[in-house]
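Question (not urgent): is this output format expected?
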Amino acid sequence: MASRQLRFWPPPRPLEERFGAAFFKNLPAAPGVYFFCGEGPGVLYVGSAANLRRRLTAYRAADPDRLPRRMLRLLQQVRRIEWDVCSSVAAARFREEMLICVLAPKFNRAGKVWPREWTPNAPRPPRRTTTASDDPPPNGAGH
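Got this back:
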């Protein structure tokens, strides 16, 4: 049985210290994609959320008893947070997948596989085309 370490002070809040509590209160409560960026160019992590405010607020406390070490290291490196609001949760997940493929962020898991509408033994679906909107193309569109 894993034991929790007794703490004499609350867990660190690196994002709240950097951005302030008002930053998290002003986030949109809408589906979207968020980006954690470090000091240099590039993106450290890309994620999607059904509610950006709720999801990003969950990162405020870097509690070592609740978060994996990889996530704690990420939160210590974040210097900028950006987001794009999407029209739906499906659009946010599609955009996240495309951005991870293009940007290859350091803290996203390598080789992450998303569920597809086909199985390995079934014929492959038509290739998807990138459109100007953030909505995924309808089934069978583009090639």
